[in-house]
Amino acid sequence: MRAGRPVLVVAERLDASADMVVDQLNQRGVPVMRYDAAQFPQALTLTATHGAGEAGWRGLLDDGRRSVRLEEVGAVYHRRPGRPTIADNVPEPYATWARNQADAALLNVVSALPVRWINNPHDDRLASHKPQQLVRAVRAGFRVPRSIITNDPDAARAFAREVAGPLICKPVLGGRIDTGAERRLMVATHALNPADVDDSLRLTAHYIQETVPKLFEVRLTVVGDSAFACTITATTEAAHTDWRTDPHGINLGTAPVPGPVAAAARRFMASYGLAFGAFDFGVTPEGDWVFFECNPAGTWAWVESRTGLPIAAAHADYLQET
């Protein structure tokens, strides 16, 4: 255990998962400095120096209430922080340039710290690419759905004939659109009828997969060597296609993690250098776990709140390890 060594928690101010990790660390008497990158540079000061022959950056992060020496940090929990906010009196295009400078400085100085991470943002970004995930999932030992990414209607129709069964379509990157409204629009996974494929498919890339017959889904949260399986059983048609669209149409439970699945998850995460991953699986009537995707910064507070699985404690355990 890193007795006395502080943990950096880098997250948005309103983040339930980060709140739960901070609470666990506080209960254990671990010093914590939490900040959001959106505070920088207006409400957060960074001073970092690197001398000739030194092994790493030294310096200070200070938000006016708390501060931490970079060289004393023991671990970092990095989870979906905002981007730096530049003062309103800086006009464009200088504001965008300044934001990019601030983002690069804070992100890259902190990510260079040679400590335990959940997860280093550079690893996190690489691991979020869904097409690459399927390749690494197969290498790790997972079964995956047949898939096509295309903007060619003829190719999509040929894929539908090959599958000869139900299809779904989902986003390649992210799942929300900023419409300027108070809440962003979620682009959900939806059933795709091959008869509806037309030239509008050419407007952008589409990620199409065979529909996996499933008894239920699993959100598998992995933290270090710990794995927690939350079962998600749909009670409505909408939830069966994408349970996020009907959160009241699901029943949650827990399940043991099969040994081969846990081993494959560890291989998958090791290939990206991850300490945390939120995996989504469909479990077939035959009991096979089919990999859908892994979110390296997925939400999990709702899993712990509704099932009691000790995910926050597992985070604190990992961040305190020597």
Task: Pick out its properties.
322 residues, alpha+beta, Rossmann fold, Dna Ligase, domain 1, D-amino Acid Aminotransferase, Chain A, domain 1, 3 domains, 5-stranded antiparallel sheet, 4-stranded parallel sheet, 9 helices, 18 strands
**How much is the radius of gyration in Å?**
22 Å
Instruction: Give the count of helical stretches.
Output: 9
pLDDT under 50 segments (min length 5)? none
Q: Calculate the terminal CA-CA distance, rounded to whole Å.
A: 5 Å
Mean pLDDT level:
93
Query: Helices and strands: which structural class?
Result: alpha+beta
Number of strands: 18
Beta-strand portion reads 25-35%
The CATH class of the largest domain is: Alpha Beta
Give me a quick take on this structure.
It contains nine helices and 18 strands. With 322 residues, it is an alpha+beta fold. It has three domains: 112 residues, 3-Layer(aba) Sandwich (Rossmann fold); 65 residues, Dna Ligase, domain 1; 108 residues, 2-Layer Sandwich (D-amino Acid Aminotransferase, Chain A, domain 1), CATH 3.30.470.
Structure in words:
- The protein has helices at 16-27, 94-111, 121-127, 130-140, 153-163, 237-241, 259-272, 301-307, 311-320, and strands at 7-11, 32-35, 45-49, 58-62, 67-69, 75-79, 116-118, 147-150, 167-170, 176-177, 185-186, 190-192, 206-210, 216-223, 226-234, 250-255, 276-283, 289-295.
- It is of the alpha+beta class.
- The longest helix is centred in the first third of the chain and has 18 residues, at 94-111.
- A 5-stranded antiparallel β-sheet has the order 16-15-14-17-18, with helices on both faces. A 4-stranded parallel β-sheet has the order 2-1-6-7, covered by helices on one side.
- The protein is built from 9 helices and 18 strands.
- 30% of the residues lie in helices and 27% in strands.
- The chain folds into 3 domains: 7-118, Rossmann fold (3-Layer(aba) Sandwich), CATH 3.40.50; 146-210, Dna Ligase, domain 1, CATH 3.30.1490; 213-320, ATP-grasp fold, B domain (D-amino Acid Aminotransferase, Chain A, domain 1, 2-Layer Sandwich), CATH 3.30.470.
